[in-house]
Amino acid sequence: MIVDWATYKIVTGDTFSSQVDAEAALLRAQRKAEEITERLFDKAERTESLTVDEQGKSWPKAYPVATVSVPDGTEIGDNGMSIHTGGSGWQDALATIVPGWTAERPRVLTTYTGGYDGTTPAPTGLQDAICELAHRYRNPADTTTIAAGARAVGASGQSMSGGRLGGSGQVPPELRDTIRQYRHPAARTP
Q1: Which is nearest to 23 in space by CA: 44, 7, 4?
Q2: In this predicted model, what pLDDT tens digit does every residue of 163-190 receive, in sequence order?
Q3: Is 108 helix (H, G, I), strand (E, B) or coil?
Q4: Cα–Cα dist 143/139, whole Å
Q5: Apex CA 64: angle with CA 3 and CA 42, to 5°?
Q6: Distance in angstroms (rounded) separating the CA atoms of residues 51 and 122
Q7: Quick check: pTM over 0.90?
Q8: Residue 171, class by beta-carbon neighbours within 10 Å (0-12 exposed, 13-18 middle, 19+ buried)?
Q9: How many whole angstroms from its chain centre is CA 69?
Q10: What is the rounded distance in angstroms from the CA atom of residue 112 to the CA atom of residue 68?
Q11: Burial tier of 114 (Cβ tally within 10 Å: 0-12, 13-18, 19+)
């Protein structure tokens, strides 16, 4: 996980959740954020079959990229977001020579280490958004403090269904927009 329990407590002010419950919610929130951003956050060694774009770059699912072990001769670029695996000029050249030729982008099996950890922490905005989503998972309904000794509570105009997440695992639009700012570069292009 890219957010720890201490950070969760600071960001949310939640002093009631146990560490186990909070970490389970953080993991669930991180997985949801990874789904929204179309990338992976935890730093680990991965092997992926990556498509090479017209500039010879591949865009791995986990970044920032720290190291690349396969293939040899690769370079890390774009502030650790891409791996330069080499050009694909011959395919583009063939497309201009042969009428009707549509070149399929080449794929390269790449082993790299990428993602966030204690040494390379995730951006604060992303951590805060994951904490907020985890807090919403832990506390799905807004609560109202009732004075001690109260005999009745008025609830006119209040709805008992839904709660903070709209009654489901949906991410509120404003929180989804915050998380989407950290989308994978390949997912940003139409």
Answers
A1: 4
A2: 344 333 589 999 999 999 999 877 665 4
A3: strand
A4: 9
A5: 35
A6: 25
A7: no
A8: buried
A9: 24
A10: 4
A11: buried
